[in-house]
Amino acid sequence: MFGWEFPPHILGGLGTASYGLTKGMAMQDDMEITFVIPKPHGDEDQSFLKIIGACNVPVVWKENTWDHVNSRLGNLMHPDEYFWLRNGIKYDFNRIHTNDLGCIGFSGRYPDNLIEEISNYEAIASVLAHQLDFDIIHSHDWLTFPAGAFAKQISGKPLVIHVHATDFDRSRGQVNPIVYGIEKRGMDAADHIMTVSDLTRKIVIEKYHQDPRKVTTVHNAVDPLPDADSFTKTIRKDKIVTFLGRITMQKGPEYFVEAAYQVLQKTKDVRFVMAGNGDMMNAMIDLVAKRNIADKFHFTGFLKGRQVHEMLAQSDVYIMPSVSEPFGISPLEAMQVGTPSIISKQSGCAEILSHAIKIDYWDIDAMADAIYAIVKNPAMHKSLQELGRNEVNNIRWQDAGLKVRAIYESVM
Amino acid sequence: MKNLCFYFQVHQPLRLKRYRFFDIGQDHYYYDDFQTEERIRYLVNQAYLPANRTIAEMIRSSNGKFKCSFSISGIALEQFEQYAPEVIDSFKELAKTGSVEFLAEPYAHSLSSVLDTDEFVQQVKIHADKIEAVFGKRPTALFNAELIYSDEIGEIVSKMGYKTMIIDEAKHVMGWKSPNFVYSHSYISKLKLLVRNHKLSDDLSFRFSSLSLTAENYINWIASMPEDQTLINIGFGYEVFGVIQSAQSGIFDFLKALPYHAMEQQLNFVLPSEISKKSDSAGNLSSPYPMSWVGNDKDLTPWNGNDLQHEALTKLYAVGERVRLCSDKPLLHDWLMLQSTDHFRYMSHKDPSGSHYESAYDAFMNYMNVLADFLERVDTQYPTTIENEELNELLKTINHQEEEIKNLEDEVKKLKAKKPKVVSK
Fold first, then answer.
1. Is A358–B368 a contact, with Cβ atoms under 8 angstroms apart?
2. CB contact at 8 A, A8 and A43
3. Could you tell me which residues come within 8 angstroms of residue A409 by beta carbon, excluding any fewer than 6 positions away?
């Protein structure tokens, strides 16, 4: 598998989904997974798969002693592996800048020279394709599509790609032609395409002109939260309604503010929290001030790790008014800690949740109504809480893993 | 000789319009007239009118031998009056033939029989009044909303003077017993129970098309039943004719052929009140807990099975006593309209049959907003700070003030009449 992120060092939902899916698939006894990421940190959980760091794979033949390699890479991989991988160098990649080991430096993030990193990733794929023994190639998201396609070309093994998001989701339709090109070529080269929701599947079919027969939806799941009970809710006079995510156009923060304004016209015992960071944050602060609700509307800034679950657990309502969300894992996380969720119909997770309130992202009236109903009706809160938690606990990665397996078998 | 007893339920709820929380206290009109009218017109044209015509023809062609009964909810009657008065005329025509019986039911098609006994009694009464006013005959048999029945309900119904009740064939009540006899209440023998034959009813209402049923086969099935089973009760929603089973399925032709084949096999058609008067009870039926005619469990869970439904019903019926003290007509009307079982059915997660809402939550939110406004109105009329009993006393005083004033005036007159004598003395 080619990926870009893997926990614990993640930047977005892709890492979480990669982890969950591989862990769910590893429950099948005869499944061996090698997961390639640009830059591992050495603290990844490798109990159920093997991680190869692209920055440790030689693409240019350099003579090095065992001891030197050991001192350089010993904490990340066995030196023998380095020498064995080095035998897979069949092409001349001297044009790429490499270090003393013949390896390429990767940031593993989303830097300005992302396109260059993506093509360097292809070089890594060529070495791995020659040297590793595998039955299928699985590429996660557009960053790894070229690598996957190249590996397929070399090895002749089937390529399955996993679309976690498309550029149409990220840009509200204003696609970047370079990104679109990479995505489209990857999809064309793939033997099968998996999408995280029917919504994404539709985009892949309609905007990328893929044959519907080779596109299948495999909904994401959510990792069980072992310490779900450790997150408690403080009893407060005011109810808390939370928006949590990047404050960007894609997430629809302005609709949340407008709904908050409506709710506050009718009742005063509700507070609204906007957690996260993003390019629209200042605009939102302005809007809140303009609506004259700043005394009831709070910004927390960026939250991470345990703080996220704590914030969710403290809330009475979680709301995700995304304009376009390929899947959207956070409502599931909110429901895990017993917080009722309101989600937009334009998010992929709406397809698999029935104990969440679904509204159109632009329908501020409906959003406000749902918030009001949950904070004012204990029965509503309780139903959503209990039935929602049960529902989410039954959405398991191993079931997604079985679906992926079936797709593998159909292309092998 | 076997007897066939048909009963058809006619009910449609007033659909609520989209009512947001910011409408609470602002807007006191709760109904989506457009949706209601469209729905009722559709049913009238597809089902009720053609079915009534067919039944009229059946009665004519069988010289009045074909008989059947109807349970039309008060809410449905109101909708006909408003949107399709021709349906009322058509039922009146049927009533004139004498082959049709109209059954009583709680006016609002409500769950009041289990949640608010006083309300139930009152609704049955106003429904019977209405049926008598429209069709000229007061019902003596009762078809409770959703065929809800328990020993307790039976007792109340019997006290109101009804002699017959329709119930459903529920395994936990019937046990090994066949539905094809007349039964009676577990301890009030004069209340007869007619048990709906579940299989034969569903064969017609749900499986007619898939079974490719013919009138001949259907009648033969019934005729071939054991000799001693003499009463077959068949009942379902009237919209089966023409909507659930479309006209194209041949359901109307099936009906038209029914009397002929029945007579050929010497089957008789009877009305509920008729058969229960004629026959002796084959035994008692005991139902300590309420049962209904929906689902496999035939209990109340389709309307009161989850937290949402429970909350809505509790909030609604908590004000029952108070609302009955009111005399504000629009308020009383809304009170009835908000009680239809349908509103609560839509809040079911498992089986929201007929729901036009996206989810149980959606139905609950909308209903609770409406209810909040309704409760506010009740509260404005009679603030909750006054206890019901106190309120009752106050109301008595107010209602009787005219009389009281008159009495006092009379007294004053009398005294005045006496006084001059004293003065002149």
1. no
2. yes
3. none
Sequence spans of domains, chain A:
13-221+400-411, 228-393
Q: List, in order, residues 6 or more apart from A299 with CB less than 8 Å away.
A: A273, A274, A275, A281, A284, A285
DSSP code, position B46 = I
CATH number of A228-393: 3.40.50.2000
* Closest-approach residue (CA) in chain B for A341: B361
Higher pLDDT, A236 or B191: B191
pLDDT of residue B420: 62
Residues A15-47: tens digit of each pLDDT: 889 999 999 999 999 999 999 999 888 888 888
User: What is the phi/psi pair of residue B231, to 5°?
Assistant: -130, 120
Contact assignment for B358 to A387 by CB distance below 8 Å: no
Q: What's the predicted TM-score (pTM) here?
A: 0.86
Asked if pLDDT for residue A241 goes beyond 70, the answer is yes
Work out the minimum CA distance from B224 to partner chain A, whole angstroms.
48
Cβ partners under 8 Å of residue A282, min gap 6: none
Average pLDDT over residues B298-302: 93
Q: How confident is the model at residue A223 (pLDDT cuts 50, 70, 90)?
A: confident
Average pLDDT over residues B161-188: 92
ipTM of this complex: 0.83
Residue-range domains of chain B with CATH = 3-285 (3.20.110.20), 301-397 (no CATH)
Q: Nearest-CA distance from B24 to chain A in Å?
A: 9
**Residue that wins the pLDDT comparison between A234 and A266:** A266
**Chain B residues touching A355 at Cβ < 8 A:** 349, 361
User: For residue B24, what is the DSSP state?
Assistant: T
Closest chain B CA to residue A370: B365
Query: Which residues are bridge partners to B184 per DSSP?
Result: B192, B284
Nearest residue in A to B305, CA atom: A383
- Best of A343, A345, A364, A383 to mutate (most B CBs within 10 Å, chain B): A383
The β-bridge relationship of strands A159-163 and A192-195 is: parallel
* Tens digits of residue pLDDT in A127-148: 999 999 999 999 999 999 999 9
Q: Are A380 and B24 in contact (CB < 8 Å)? A: no
Long-range pairs for A11-18: beta carbons < 8 A, 24 or more residues apart: A11/A109, A11/A110, A13/A164, A13/A327, A13/A328, A13/A329, A14/A140, A14/A141, A14/A164, A14/A165, A16/A223, A16/A329, A17/A140, A17/A164, A17/A196, A17/A220, A17/A327, A17/A329, A18/A140
Which chain A residue shows the shortest CA-CA distance from B306? Answer: A383
Let me know: does A309 contact A227? Beta carbons within 8 Å: no
Give me the DSSP letters along B353-404.
TT--SSSHHHHHHHHHHHHHHHHHHHHHHS-TTS-HHHHHHHHHHHHTHHHH
Q: Which residue does chain B place closest to A354, by CA atoms?
A: B359
- A→B contacts (Cβ < 8 Å), by residue, are 262, 265-266, 354-355, 357-358, 365-366, 368-370, 372-373, 376-380, 382-384, 386-387
For residue A32, with 0-12 CB atoms within 10 Å meaning exposed, 13-18 middle and 19 or more buried, which class applies? Answer: middle
Kindly determine whether residue B361 and residue A378, on different chains, have CB atoms separated by under 8 Å: no
How far is B25 from B378, CA to CA, in rounded Å?
12
Quick check: B359 and A354 CB within 8 A?
yes
Mean pLDDT calculated for residue range B238-245? 94
Q: Which CATH number among 3.40.50.620, 3.55.40.10, 3.40.190.290, 3.40.50.2000 corresponds to the domain A13-221+400-411?
A: 3.40.50.2000
Q: Do domains A13-221+400-411 and A228-393 have the same CATH topology?
A: yes
CB A202 within 8 A of CB A378: no
A266 neighbourhood in chain B, CB within 8 Å: 21-22, 24
Confidence of residue B408 (pLDDT cuts 50, 70, 90): confident
